[in-house]
Structures are given as structure tokens and as C-alpha cells.
Amino acid sequence: MRFTKPAWVMHKDSAMRGDEKRVSIFSCHVHPDGSRIATGGLDAKVRIWSTKPILNHASELSGRPPKSLSTLTMHTGPVLVVRWAHSGRWLASGSDDEIVMIWDLDPSAKGKVWGSDEVNVEGWKPLKRLVGHESDVTDVAWSPGDRYLASVGLDSAVLVWCGYTLERLRKIDQHQGFVKGVCWDPVGEFLATGSDDRSVRIWRTTDWELEAEVKKPFDHSPGTFFRRLSWSPDGAHITASNATNNEGYVFIAAVIARNSWTSEISLVGHENTVEVAAYNPHIFLRDPSQPVTAHNICSVVALGADDRAVSVWQTKAPRPMVVAKDVFERQIMDLSWSQDGLTLYAVSSDGTMAVFSFDSSEMEGIAPSSAQEQYLKRFGFVSPPVPEGYSHLASLQEQKAQQNNRITPPPSPRAHSQDFGSAANAAPGGEQVHTLVAKRKPKKRIQPTFAGSLSGQIPSSSVNGIKPPPSSSSGARAFQESSTVPISVPSTSALPLSISQPFGTSSSFGLGLNTGESDFAMDVDDEVRISSLDGGMQNPKGKRKAGEDFDDRTASRARTLGGDRVREPAVARPLTNRVPPPGPPGGGVWAEGSSLVGRLEPPQLVTYLKATVEGSEDVFEGRNAEGDEPNEVLYVSGKQTQWLDYLPSPILALTATATFCAVAMQDGTLTVYSHTGRRLMPPLAIGSQCCALTSAKSMLMLLTVSGQLYVWDVKKQAAKFPPTSISAILGSSPNLTVATATVRPNGAPVIQLSDGVAHSYDASLCVWTKLSEPWWSEGSDAWQGRQRSNNLAMRGPLTVLESAISERMSVDDGRAEKVRPTWWNAALTLGHLESKLHAAKALDSPAEYKQALLLYAKRIADEGFRGKAEELVKELFGPVYWRPGRDESWSPTMLNMPKRDLLKEVLNIFVRSKTLTKLGQDWQETLKKSQLDE
């Protein structure tokens, strides 16, 4: 664990000039993508900080990205709570001024903060003031999926707001004292509040009536500034602060069980009242090798107390994992976990922040998010429907947006944190480059009336948020860039606002001050992109002041096809007025008679698709016309259209790499372009509609609805192998479908089926091979999740496949209870590792090959299988006097790794074993002699 206290994170007394006096920080909350943290303090301000300088000392020293991103100053009293929405799009803050404020990104609000020397690198505007409390707002919380927002205060009231319209839905005033804490059930069924009336009350979200009242642990609890409580991510427990045992002499945090609503468990050890409890957002597995079941899960919860100590507990252990004493000089006000579950932030009334960064080995056993979601579904709770009449309201706003030529899709209320930040083909272990995008109407500084005001109607961004596009911005990038294509899901996106990490490896753009312009000079580009704060000064290209002429800006640009056309924003909508072309007589490709009919579907036809080019911020866009206009593709670089092309048929899918761009059309045609718009290959008449289109480096893969698979090396303009049908792996089962389709940079296709089995086509064997399958998870000790390592192999393609299989097979199916034969684990482990060696070779993954080889050597050494050991040694050693060109049947390398270097490591394992010591020593001598002879 790494501990740090960034001195520059502070709220200052505005009355003190020169001498920067710290004032209390009451709240903190990390953005879902982990790139920012918001704090609220006694200075009546909300401050947003970059987390990279906090976590990375080199970044802190370099000043890139900027440490302070924004200062929000609309509150008139101390800010007692700040909470990001789960989508990451909005920030809610509650204050002493009785107001809950909802903040949204505003590109025009950058610049100096009014009345101070501070500078906003990012602009945030007050989207709406939520008025209703009659005293201080002490806590707020967003429900799962941002369906609701709850706020509590010193008026003893609990207010529930709609997370879509931000209108007040309910006022609960049954508490008899100040309400100082609120949290939501992760299932969405209940809301819990903690009050100075010495009770925790649980409310049903179906009718907002009281479900239960818990009083016993709080009978003797003293008064505290907050009573922040937290609900465990598995939905089983509430950990409530400010509880006591032994008639008030022992300070504890009470753990309240779901359904029974009793507190039989206490977290004991703090020497003063516990002020705040915060659960790690992840479910943890007691035994990572076992599936996610009620008996195999636990949680991690952090406590902050008035004894100035922070403790971190794992519910499977009777004692805390970590106890950090005297972290602050005064009591702890708030705690917040990062979304990855590895970083804990704490703030204190002494005006400082402390950060605890854990290693993944210290937080071992994090369950996959998909398994966590599946586990919560077992409670059987169905979320309530969207607000009545919302669809009508959404369509109205959409019409207004179209009339203003300003379509602004909303945030997805259910989007994961990574939906607001996707890496552009980041290398393993490398720093990701993210894009922060915000739309606004060109040439106008004043927002339309429906875009919201401090107390006006809800803006279009929030109204439209109820029904977001089918996929988010990052979802589209993952669809196109990672080359993993969910079947029958259109590779489209049109979210104009993607809040992501404010830093990256690229320095081509920045969010610093534009020194040559007035504070009120504004950009008039259709969109403002922030790819990195590391760059410092923002690139002035493509920017102008409000009074400058547009033609002057473009006069010096090189002529491009379509470059003089104003690029209009677009949104993805399903196309219902286009139908597939009729099939040829006799069936043809549109009416396949095979068993694959209905099992492979083309992507949904939508109005807008895009793919981000690997390693850059250039975008390849496709636009399908809704009327008689032609369909078109565009290549956009730096907000400037570099070229465009018109197509005779609607676009089904597109993809882009650093080498080429490709588009698949509804009529079965595939067109491949260079980055200048030149056709690299002739239009390819595939003869069947596209089911999946994906790419990697110079490789392009297409899977058709008829089951034919094509892979081309675009650079060589040649096919990797003849068209191949996937019917051999789909078989005759009507329920078996393709889950994902991927191509590797070496041209190996990877098809994962709905049953979890992953296949690849081996061109040399002319047959499909199995890369991995759930079968190995039933007994292999080498199955992903059982081996813990931080090396590159743990991030390779095979690990990704096994992780996906583990997530699919996470539901408990009773495998652990089956009686197995004596040699079950040994046989499956060896078989799995042997299969993994072949799979790593097929996928060109040397790190995973080496890892599997060494694990295999250790296992056969432990078991004493001399025959397998000798065979492995001979295969790696090869001919004793091998010379290039003499014996072509043996290659001296495996995936560019010398086989005899690998043999050295294998022999070292054998020498240390109890059963193969002599074998290892003999071959070590032989290896030394052969090297001397060479």
C-alpha cells in the first residue's frame, strides 16, 4: 500500500490574502473513471482535482496534467457533500445554503474564476438548482443507474428527486432529528437514512414507505457532524456509522443485515465516534477459484472516525486489513473509493486529503463486474419504469434540437465509468489517451432556453438522458478499436460528451490558458475536444474569436474532398424506412438454406456510425440518410473533414486502424480506403450481409450472416486463407450463437460462442481449433483467476478470453460439489496448459506462451512425469548439431524466443524439483557442451 497526502489539495479562506489558510474539507468523491476527484469545503466552493498528480509523483512534479481542474462557486454556504452520478456526466453538491446543485460540463466556462486569481481548466455550469430543503443539506446519493437522487438535511427531511427530469418525486419527513446520512441499496429496492434521532430507517422505493427502523445500536450514540452510512455491493448489509456498544462506552460501526434488519455484527476498535463508512464498490471472492455464491463472497469497507484514524475491513476477517492512525489532525469527514477498488481517498476537517493506494495483490479476489450484476439479479427486484410521459418529452426535445441544428444526445444513466473514457488502442501497461468532448452551438454564446438555467426547466441533456443511444461513446470505441464485436449490435455512437481521464500520452491538445486571447474570447468550432491536459497550452489551430471571419480561418488549408463543408453533429437512430434488398430468384445469399439462418444477424441499421482510428483521435464516420439523400462516409481529423465518399447502399458496419478504413454495406459490398480516401482494394462483392466487421493493424476480418469468414492482409492485399464457414464450430444446436468476433494482428480470427468456447482457424491445418473452453475451469489449477501475477502475460489475449469465459460461467452450477476421480485436477491442469501452449502460439502471444510453458514444467516436475519432461526437453533442445538450412523440420525459435533460452528456465525448474533433479542436471550439462561447440 502507498500512502500520500497531497499538500496542494486544499480549500482556502478567501479572506486571507497571501497566507493561504486551509479550511475544512467536508466531502470528497471520485469520478467513476478515476480521473478526477471533487471536494467540497468551508469556503463554499466545489473543487475538481486531477487524480494523476496525486497518484503519480512524476506527474505531480511535471505539472501535467494541471492539478486543479475547476472551481465551482455558485453555492453561498459551506459545501457539505459532493457526489458524482454513476454515469459520470453530472455532479451533485449539497450545501449550507439549503440547495442541491447539479453541475454539467460547460466548455465556455473555462478561464479565470470570478473574483480570484484561480483558473478553470475545465468549465462546469450549474445545470439546475434543486430547491426544497429548509436547512443545511448534509448528504446526497445517486441510486443505481442514476434512476433517483436522494438528499437529506438538517430539516429532518429526505427528498427524492427523479434522476431523469430532476423534479422532486417525494418528501419523507418521518425522522425526528437531523438526517445526516443516506445510501441506496445496490439492488435498487431500498433507501437507507441515518439520523440524529438515533435510528437508521430503511424505505421501500416502490411506495417510499417505511420498511424497517433500526435503533438498538444507536441508543447511546453521541452527536456527530455526519452519520454517513454505506450499503455493501452485494446488497446484504448496511454499515452504519456512529453506533456504540456497552451503553455508549465502546465506539463501533454497526453492520445491519438485509431483510431481518438486525445488527448482530459490530466493527470495534476506533477510540472515538465513527463518522463515515464507505464500501469498496466491488464484491470480493473468499476463494477466487470458486464461483460467485453467497457463501464465497465478502466485501471491503472503510471507516473514518473522530479519533483521526482510518480502518479498512474485509468482512471475511475478524480484524481490519489496515489501520492508519493519526492520519489527520482533526476528525475525518468523508471517504471515497475509486471505481477500480484500489484507491481510497479520505478528507478531514483539518483541510487535508489522504490517499491510500492498494496493490491488486492486497485487494485479491475482486469479482468480475458482470458476475456482480448477475448476483444482484438474484434478489428478483425489477426497477420501476421511467417517468410517465417521458418519451413524449424526449421527442419534443429532439425536435427542438433538430430545429436548432444542435442534436445533443444525453448521458446514459446506466453507463459504467469507462463509458466516459476509452483508450485509443493503448499498449498493455501504457498510459491511455482519452477524449473529453462537449457540443455547443457554433457562433453563439447564449444557450437556448431549453438548455436549462439555475432554476428553470430541465435541459435537453438531462431529458434525453432517459433513453440514450444504443451504445455510448466508449462502447463504440471498444466495438471498433479493440476489434471485439458483439454480434447483432450496431457499431454506432453519438454521445457528444465523454468525460474521461484528463490526461494521456498525447500532448497535441491541452486545456491551459490561451494566452493570446481575452478571457471572454470563445471557440466556435462545432465541438471542443480535450484529449490531454499534459499538453499545457491548447493548440490554437482551428480556433477563433467570436468576431473573426470563418473564411479567413480556412483559406490557407489544403484542399480536401468535402473539407469546405461544415461538419454537422449527428446522432444514432434506428432506420425503419430502409429494407434489405430482395433476394435473387431461387434464394441466393439472402435466403440461405443452411442451419445458420436466424443465428447470425446483421447489425441494426442506424443513421450514424463511427470508429476512432488506432493511435490517434481521427474519426471515420458513416451516415445513413433517412430520406432520399445519399449515404456517405467521412474521415475527420482535428474537427476538419479530410475527405468524404458517397455510397450506393446503407452502411452496416465500419472499422478503422492506423493503416486503413473499411465499410461494409447492406448490399454485401465491402470497401477499403486509405487515410486519404483512396481505395486500397477493389470493392469486394461478398455476396452476403455483414454480421461482424473488425480489424487489427493491417488485418481486416468480415463475418457474414451466411457464416462465411474472411480475413485479409490489407497491406499485402491478400487473403490469409480461403473463405471459411463457421458452421463447423456452430454445429447443429439452434441455441448456439456467436458472442464476439475478433482478429489478431497476425491475422488469426478469434470466434467466441455463446457457450464460452473460443475458436480460431488454423490455416496450416485447414481446420478450426479450440483456444479455450469452460471445461478447463472445472479442474485446472492454471485457469485464469487461480494464478496471480502482474506480468504481461496476465493481460494477453488468452487471459482476456478466459476472463470472459469466467464471467459467462460465474453462476454457481454446483461443480464444486461433484465427486471427482483421483487424477482429476492433475489431468485437467496438464491438458489445459498443453492446450494453452498451442493457443498462445496461434494468437502470437509470447508472454503467455512462456508463462504456460513454465507452469507446465513445474507441474510435470511436481507430479514426477519423467516421460513428459524428456519429451518437452527434446522438443526445446532440438538436434544437437543443428545448423540453419540443414534441418528445416525444427525451428530454433518459438514466437521469436530462442527455444534453448526457454529450455534453460525449464531445466532450472527440473533441477529444483524432488523427482527430476538428475534429469535436469544431465540436460544442463548437455546444453552447456552444445553451446561450447557452437
UniProtKB/TrEMBL annotation:
Main location: nucleus
Keyword line: Chromatin regulator, Nucleus, Repeat, Repressor, Transcription, Transcription regulation, WD repeat
Keyword Kinase included in the entry's annotation: no
Gene Ontology BP term (one): DNA-templated transcription
Ranges annotated as biased composition (Polar residues): 397-407, 450-464
GO cellular component, one term: nucleus
Domain Protein HIRA-like C-terminal, residue spans: 677-876
Domain (CAF1B/HIR1 beta-propeller) ranges: 34-363
Matches recorded under SUPFAM superfamilies: WD40 repeat-like
Subcellular location: Nucleus
Pfam families referenced in this protein's UniProt entry, alphabetically: Beta-prop_CAF1B_HIR1, Hira
Family designation: Belongs to the WD repeat HIR1 family.
Function of the molecule: Required for replication-independent chromatin assembly and for the periodic repression of histone gene transcription during the cell cycle.
Designated name of the protein: Protein HIR
Species in which this protein is naturally found: Dichomitus squalens
Lineage, opening ranks: Eukaryota, Fungi, Dikarya, Basidiomycota, Agaricomycotina
